[in-house]
Amino acid sequence: MRIADHVHQSLNNLWKKKLRTFLTAAGVVIGIAALFSMLAFGKGMQKNVLDRFVRLELFRYITVFGPSEGPRGPRARRFRDHQSPPTAPPLTDERLAEIANIPGVEAVFPEVRFPAVVRHEEAERFCLVQELSPEIVASGLVAFRTGGPYTHDDPNAVIVSDSLLRDLGFTDPEAAVGKPLTVATIRVDAGLLNPLNIATALTGAALPFGQEEHTFTIAGVAERMGIGMGMVRSDVLIPAGTAARMKTVSVTHLSDLFKSTDLSGAYSAAAIRLTSTTHLDSVKAVLREWGYGTFALADEVDQIETAFLLMDMFLAAIGMIALLVASLGIVNTMVMATLERYREIGIMKAVGARNSDVRRIFFFESGAIGLLGGLFGVLFGWLASLLINDIVNYYLAAKGVSRTNYFTFPLWLWLASIIFAIAVSLAAGVYPAIRAAKTDPIKALRHD
Amino acid sequence: MKSTGPCALIEIQELTRVYPAAIPVRALDGVTVAIPEGCFLGISGSSGSGKSTLLNIVGGLDRPTSGQVTVESRRISDLGSDDLACYRREQVGMVFQSFNLIPAYTAMENVALPLLFAGIARSERIRRAEEALNAVGLASRRDHRPAELSGGEQQRVAIARALINKPKVLLADEPTGNLDTTTSAQILRTLADLNTVGLTVLMISHEERLLREFAHAIVRLRDGRVIEYESIR
User: Fold this and answer.
1) Which residues of A touch B62 (CB under 8 A)?
2) B38-61+80-231: CATH topology
């Protein structure tokens, strides 16, 4: 039999049993749609994350850590393998200047953070305020919902996250830009440092700390904080150098109180921006030679991709369940067809059909179900994904999150889904096809 | 007629067919018949005498337990599955009592079925099927399905299908069993006409009168054995 005749005959036979074909193919449609949507979601998530890394030029950054006194806190655990040993030289301003002179280094930004209470009218929240140079703020690491980055000429500007803004009672982020924000810092109270008060403090009755308030003007509202290898880790950002004129105590963790006095004036970490990613290895080599531990996101890409691969496999496994059920439907339909067409198979063999002809007839029919299911499955999956994307975006828009495409539909996913549908259907057709080919024509011709 | 000489188109030698069962059924038991080219051979016998088994083995639908069948010097009992399918498609045509047409196919599609499995192009299939239907007087019924045809018409469609590949042998298993007397006579006349132009016909029938009217010879079977070979003309 010719291929064209097989195709014609299989479609003809399926058309004669329209309802059964529709119901069987519907199972494949649902299975493929689920698989297609799941993988499109996985790929969408991967693309969003990696695109964001690229857009923010995160692969151009290296974080260098000051001497470590052992892991502490969740961040320390995350970077444990990258921390500098306790013997590493302190990250002083002089050392940062030396780092800035390493070939391939564009700029070095020390990490400065201190605890503060942020107030607006009656509302207040405790948080860590971070100094961040205008260059980093403007680099794209901070995604602005409204307003924009500050400049060197504006030492009283502040950038706040939209989540903190909501906590402070702002309902419209755009209306917050230009509004004053009070930052209350902890300072050492000299008046409490006389021997009598120290004795009182030692009994736990009072600590020698006071508060100092500074007023800033909101320059911008950021969508998200806490990305970029910890470079932006606070809900309040102020221009670099501002902390120096504020009488702050840079204690972000109780263990800071036990730090060696040798490290006073040294930074716990610094972000290094490279002129290009090609200098990543050479700069890291110099820093390693100087005794520092480093962390670069570019080194983690393989792990990120592996993590996404595992996520894809998990999502695909969920989609496969529906397809597995659909394949059982195909087996059932095709076995039914061999029983119903038992006599017809006998007639075909009596007039000269080979076993392989009969086998192919049923293979083509199950393959045609797979093709139909695959084509409509990807179409249905695509439409369902677009609908889900719109619903999620509509819901998140109310929470102030900008529109994002959570699904990605690469060409290979369309083709692979259709081919997979056909392959699964053909596999489901193996048993019925073999069974049909083994039909004894004499018995079949006697069958009513 | 019962010679085993070199001019025989079909040679059946010591053909035995035993169906496996708790008590094995010996459907054919050492049948030997030689059928020359152009012969119209009638096969008769009571029910269970082995007539259909004999025809099925000659038609390549069944295989003997022992013995051999040679058609045009080709030992068909030794053929592989694919070669046997090719033999059924091209060297013999079969007509059955119950017509065995595919209900969902039109008359033309049924007639063209052997050509489909021969890998012949659709246009050629249609041309030859129309020609075959025309030969049995059913050109006007080409697009009708079996349910829309009378018994006689269905059997003529089956004959057209059996002859579409121009075989040398036509095997007919009770072709008039489901037909009335008039239609039976028409069908037998058709077979006799085909025999006249050189087709070798092997036909099973209960009706001795019909066989005597059309056949050159009659083989009578009982319990799987040839009990009589009668030359009529």
Assistant:
1) 442
2) Rossmann fold (3.40.50)
